[in-house]
Amino acid sequence: MTTIDTATITVELPDPFDPRWNRLPGIHVGGRRITIDPAEYFFRFESSTWLVADWELVKAQLLDVDETTESTVEQLALDFIKNHGESTSDAARVLTAAYGVYTYLFREEHLAGLGLPQITADHLRMLREAATLMALNKAELDGHISNVGPCWFFPAATSVVFDLDDATGGMLDEVYHGGWFNEHRRIESIKAHAALGGRLVHGCQSVPDQSGGVVAPYGASMANFRDDLAEFKAGWIEQVYARRVTAAE
Questions:
Q1: Which end of the chain has fewer CB atoms surrounding its CB within 10 Å, N or C?
Q2: What are the tens digits of pLDDT across the range 155-177?
Q3: How far apart are CA 199 and CA 209, in angstroms?
Q4: What residue ranges do the domains of the chain occupy?
Q5: Res 248 pLDDT > 50
Q6: At what angle do helices 121-134 and 154-162 cross, to 10 degrees?
């Protein structure tokens, strides 16, 4: 039987996170330092290992490589993971890699061409923070979802932490999982997520469905993923929303 490491997770990231993350159970943010108690933070925590590749290596050897008629971008990412992916039980390493990935993907230079003038640089910061924490979520090759934290339910978590209304939270979710509505950015996403050992997949059809997503290994069963997600999401979304701060508070 596999032993799950439930020791406290601590990481220092390059930039400070919003202190309102402390509204969620099991996570404490103090500037750049983030501490997570897995027993309190996760709804489901069945795996304390993750597949990662060095982000600096991804930047140097993958981001500028173009696909060809013989090798698609997905194949490039898969081959890179096969050659450079490592299993780690160091959650801080996962979070550090994720912050590199999402600082790259949600960089401000994209704002001008996004076609959503209501999205600001501050919204990109929210996306970077929430997506970084989502990297601790995990799906297995058989499609079973082994780790689920509050940030699985992106609009719910961002509404609690950043005091967003449902419309704004949903809009951010679309920017997160829509590849920014652009094939060039989707290609960037596929390459960058090689640092987190897979590709970004979602259980939702659209914002109202709010089924979240995870960086899943290539080859994972999406049928089992869908079925597992359908069984648990409603009750856990409700628990996230219960942490909302009302005007009276």
A1: N
A2: 888 888 999 887 888 788 878 77
A3: 21
A4: 50-241
A5: no
A6: 120
